[in-house]
Amino acid sequence: MNVLTIILMAVLVFLSRYLFLEPKLPVNLSPYMQRLLSYAAPALLAAVIGPIIFVHTHGVNLSVQNPYLWAGLCTVILIMLTKRILLTTTLGFICFIGFKWALTLSSQTL
């Protein structure tokens, strides 16, 4: 049953991509639909990253001791300045490690 489900999902995903990517098929989207679909990637990214940044074991964490929040803000600023995904991803990871280290160190001294 699991294998059949995986195969059917793979076929469904392939066909849904194929319909939009095959140039010989007469599928034309209106400008409104094209504009609407341009928001799909940012919405998906926000849905994936939002809980990672804000939700932790005890609920929503908006404190200044949240390294995910600081690294997320740093990464947003970096992508706005550089417009380079690989550089921003690398520097975002470095920011997260730095903020996690600094916040752990500061909480141990308090």
TrEMBL record:
<keyword id="KW-1133">Transmembrane helix</keyword>
<dbReference type="InterPro" id="IPR008407">
    <property type="entry name" value="Brnchd-chn_aa_trnsp_AzlD"/>
</dbReference>
<keyword id="KW-0472">Membrane</keyword>
<dbReference type="Pfam" id="PF05437">
    <property type="entry name" value="AzlD"/>
</dbReference>
<feature type="transmembrane region" description="Helical">
    <location>
        <begin position="37"/>
        <end position="56"/>
    </location>
</feature>
<keyword id="KW-0812">Transmembrane</keyword>
<protein>
    <recommendedName>
        <fullName>Branched-chain amino acid transporter</fullName>
    </recommendedName>
</protein>
<feature type="transmembrane region" description="Helical">
    <location>
        <begin position="68"/>
        <end position="99"/>
    </location>
</feature>
